[in-house]
Design a protein that fits this description.
34% helix, 14% strand, 454 residues, two-stranded antiparallel ribbon
Length: 454
């Protein structure tokens, strides 16, 4: 049969799966500039995630709780293994480490205010502790990162817990970045760096190279704080099963596992999209490691990376986490990628500022530039005024409150009087991939892909 001209025209416009327009743009940019892309936020590719799981609510075989009359407990204890003063939180939803430098001082104050009102914790991030953050945060976790920028033993003692950061979900095996346009005079002074010069953090700690050395470092931190403060160890999700075991052996009170959906202020796109494993798989491996060591419940587990909703929180707890940490969702709650910002009670358009960055609201990942149109990821004295602490705190408080209400709603629907009583038996998977990663049965079956005996 003869091919008609209009059919040939259609065939000539078919896009190549391996060399689609995104891949071609990448190759042309690399060829033109000889540079890789640096950007903020997290992976944009579609990954198996908590949306691929659903709960089995109560019916006849389980008895639900009445939402308005029967209490559902959300209190969460962290650091019960060795610390004299474990952290007690009102909700199992914490704020992940995000630095002053990456974020403005107004944002750090907003985080502290909102977290304190909801009875949860916030975390310093790289570059040290600000007064705004310490004064506004009832419970503050102080990070000890490979860079040691701004690290101060006096601030360690002022904190409520210490988090030794081995890696981050968006860039496991890589160091952080803070480009020169965000290294203001205050940031430079805190980090003992030249003002306006790009900062690239180390990818590993300078004074230890393995788990045995980590045990020594943890002991030093315990002595520095008179054994009062819980010690967290945070790992980017890669070889999670073994990393969690080694962190437990090194003496951690709490393990933080950050999946590849986790965000960053700035790193190479190739890291964000191609290094690490999804949170869903990492969480399951972390729980198995703790169970293998008979340390489940003795060492607490916090999971982060792509936690967005109360349903996500509930699923993480059902799979075995004790709490979650949220970063990107917090920024969105504050106004990240919004088309407007609030000043004097008025919503003002930021669309021209997005256009100047070559993007649009909802598509921005230009955190690294310091030119955030809504005043969140900036050190610019004018731009940071676009987010006032009282407004940011109110928005974030509403977001965290909503997540917690959704969490307890689901827990009650599953017949639980305590959100920490949610269990794997309450979950099934909707896709084969999610079932295999989470090792949960595919909905409507008893089949768990990859499990012996199935």
């Amino acid at each position: 049969m003869e091919t008609k001209p209009e059919q040939l025209k259609h065939i000539s416009r078919e896009e190549s799966a391996g060399y689609d327009h995104k891949t071609q743009d990448y190759i042309r940019n690399a060829a033109a500039h000889g540079l890789y892309e640096i950007r903020g936020l997290g992976a944009k590719r579609k990954l198996p995630n908590f949306d691929d799981l659903v709960f089995l609510g109560a019916s006849l075989s389980r008895y639900p709780l009445e939402g308005y009359r029967e209490k559902c407990v959300t209190k969460t204890l962290l650091g019960t293994r060795f610390a004299k003063k474990p952290i007690e939180l009102e909700i199992p939803i914490t704020i992940a480490g995000m630095s002053f430098g990456s974020l403005s001082a107004h944002v750090k104050e907003s985080l502290g205010r909102a977290a304190s009102e909801l009875g949860t914790s916030t975390t310093t991030g790289d570059g040290g502790m600000t007064q705004e953050e310490r004064l506004s945060s009832k419970t503050l976790v102080y990070q000890c990162l490979p860079s040691r920028y701004g690290f101060n033993p006096d601030d360690v003692r002022r904190a409520d817990a210490i988090e030794v950061v081995i890696g981050q979900g968006a860039k496991p095996g890589g160091g952080g970045m803070l480009l020169g346009q965000k290294v203001s005079s205050r940031v430079a002074k805190m980090r003992a760096l030249p003002e306006g010069i790009d900062q690239r953090s180390a990818c590993r700690h300078p004074d230890w190279t393995g788990p045995d050395d980590l045990a020594i470092k943890i002991h030093e931190l315990r002595e520095m704080t008179d054994w009062e403060k819980p010690i967290y160890v945070k790992v980017g999700a890669t070889r999670t099963f073994h990393d969690v075991k080694l962190a437990v052996h090194a003496g951690a009170d709490v393990i933080v596992v950050d999946g590849m959906q986790g965000g960053t202020a700035a790193t190479q796109t190739c890291f964000i999209e191609h290094v690490g494993i999804p949170t869903l798989a990492a969480l399951r491996q972390a729980v198995e490691a703790l169970e293998d060591l008979n340390m489940k419940g003795t060492v607490q587990l916090i999971v982060s990376g792509g936690i967005r909703t109360g349903a996500d929180v509930a699923k993480a707890l059902a799979m075995g986490a004790d709490a979650v940490a949220i970063g990107q969702g917090v920024l969105v709650a504050l106004g990240c990628n919004s088309e407007s910002y609030i000043q004097n009670g008025q919503h003002l358009s930021a669309e021209k500022d997005y256009a100047a960055l070559g993007t649009a609201p909802g598509f921005c990942h230009h955190c690294h530039t310091g030119k955030c149109p809504v005043g969140i990821t900036t050190q610019d004295a004018i731009l940071e005024q676009r987010l006032q602490p009282e407004i940011g705190a109110k928005r974030l408080r509403n977001y965290l409150k909503t997540l917690n209400m959704e969490l307890t709603t689901i827990a009650r629907a599953c017949g639980k009087q305590n959100v920490h009583h949610l269990e794997r038996e309450d979950l099934v998977a909707l896709t084969v991939e999610a079932a295999a990663m989470a090792r949960l049965p595919l909905a409507g079956t008893d089949w768990v892909p990859g499990m012996a005996g199935y």
